[in-house]
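Second opinion, please. Pick holes in both lines of this record:
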Amino acid sequence: MLRPFDYRRPASLEEACDLLATLPAAVVLAGGTDLLVKIRDGKQRVASVVDIKGVRGLERVRRDGDELVIGALATVTDLLQCDDALAEPGLALLVDAGRVFGCEEIRHRATICGNVAHASPGAEYGSPMVVLEARCVIHGPGGERTISIGDFYRGPNRSALDAGEILVALRVPIPPPSARSAYLRRSRVRGMDLAALNLALLVLDAERPARREVRLAMGAVAGTPIRAPAVEELLSATPITGALLAQAQSALSAGINPRPTSLRATPEYKRAMVAHLLEAGLERLLVPFPEEGPP
């Protein structure tokens, strides 16, 4: 049962930001698949809900030059039906994440910006946006600003959004055609469950080892989605042999420090699984794999 709250449905972005800045304990409602569950379960108490689904000008999903723009009202289903996303190998990880996101009904309602804005360490779209180096477009009482996705995350369930601000869009650089990407996760059960951990992998210039750049990001292994720069450097600009993979896996596992109080997996399991997911992702993206011989 939901506790009573004040409900507002503004028609403009300026009105929405003003309500969020002035109403007591106000929160944004877009898809509501996370917020309403928290309110129902007593995990979040709110006095005012500002429903932005009627706000004019909040776009869905579109291509803008070499970027994919994901607006505040874009649902997971919108992305899964976007030809611009489906056609790009470098954006396959966004599609992978969408296909394991909840169930079909949830995908029709849940928004991608909302998934990012809640700043859950294991959110499906956290690590993919980090590895793609997306930019966050934020609108508030002081106007509009754009920050990197890395600067957006401040800690578990904490973001850079100030009072009255809304994440209105994610601007995602589209990798070149030579890129390959994948999103992998592990959960406690098959079917609809939050990820116990996840890994997003992007390989630029995938077929040219000497020029290759490997990026990876992990979710639910720290307070925010994180990159692994030392492992990325180790795997880039060289053929990935069995010995190099083992070295990278060891460094990746040693470089994370999952909290022992996690409800979904032990630290030992997460350290073992990030190594496994790295191998599984590279095996999917690189053929042949492992690679032996000169670049």
Notes: The two ends are 61 Å apart (CA to CA). Residues 152 and 160 are 5 Å apart (CA to CA).
